[in-house]
Amino acid sequence: MNNGSPGQSPAPQSPHGHVPNAQSFASNHSAIETTAVYDPDAPKYFFQEKYAPLNVKGNFLTLCACPKNVELGEWLAHQIVEQNRLLQAMLKVIQEVNSHTGLPICNETSCPTMSAGRLTYTWLVDSQAAKISAPKFINRVEKWIVSKIHDPVMFPTEKVTGVPDTFALSEATGASAADAAANAGGEDWIGKSSGFPRTFYKDCQGIMKQMFRCYAHLYHAHWLNPFWHINKHDILNMCFVHFVTVAKYYKLVSDKEMEPMQPLIDLFIKQQRIPPEALNGGHWGQQSSS
Ligand SMILES: [Zn+2]
What we know:
Elements: H1 22-33, H2 61-64, H3 72-95, E1 114-116, E2 119-121, E3 123-125, E4 128-130, H4 134-149, H5 166-173, H6 177-184, H7 200-228, H8 233-249, H9 262-270, H10 282-289
Antiparallel strand pairs: 1-2, 3-4
Helix pairs in contact: 3-4, 3-7, 3-8, 4-7, 5-6, 7-8
Protein name: Mob1/phocein
Binding site for Zn(2+): 106, 111, 217, 222
Keywords: Metal-binding, Zinc
């Protein structure tokens, strides 16, 4: 069993006791910590209530619930852009190059794989699942999400009046003739009236899944260094709680996918930081009950 090295771990008696050490830490940490290799068995302090502060009053339900006069597709697009903005700010913390070492905290040596605990995420390279380094993986996710958000087919910026031309759309999205035929049958989908493609909701799920993986890596590999050390672990929690509220309320990330972060999610549910209304696809639950 690895109980962690005492010098780098939060003091069990006083979670904030470690923060004053930031001075001694600042002088050593850049050189030491950017070369520390990720240990999947390191203690998971972030799953413990005493290390999981949250400087938010109430919860994120009002920010997440779709206003009555807004079409759901438009609203989900807005939520995705906002979640991406929050995640980017957190990723920046592990990506900034340290002037002493010339390396970011998350680098090829510290994180040779995109891991969250014992779980390693793979990336498809030439249709083969490949274990690429976390910085490469995260970089690809970021570029992929940005390309989706800026894709006028996936995220149309101009509101389309009426129903989009399904055949032109299927050409643009590479959808099959069968899909086009299904669309022509008058089927409805989320975002249809706002001009979003048939795949829009699935695309949102794909984006949120990759975002979740980034959060899982941020916690499992970088909660202690740097978030705890620079006292930004509460901001990380705030972004993550917001993310999970949106993910659960609109069923954008499956429970199975969220398993690597389950203890913390359970804790936030218990504290009602993730409100009960958001659970089990609350958006649709409320609609069917009203
Ligand atoms: Zn990393």
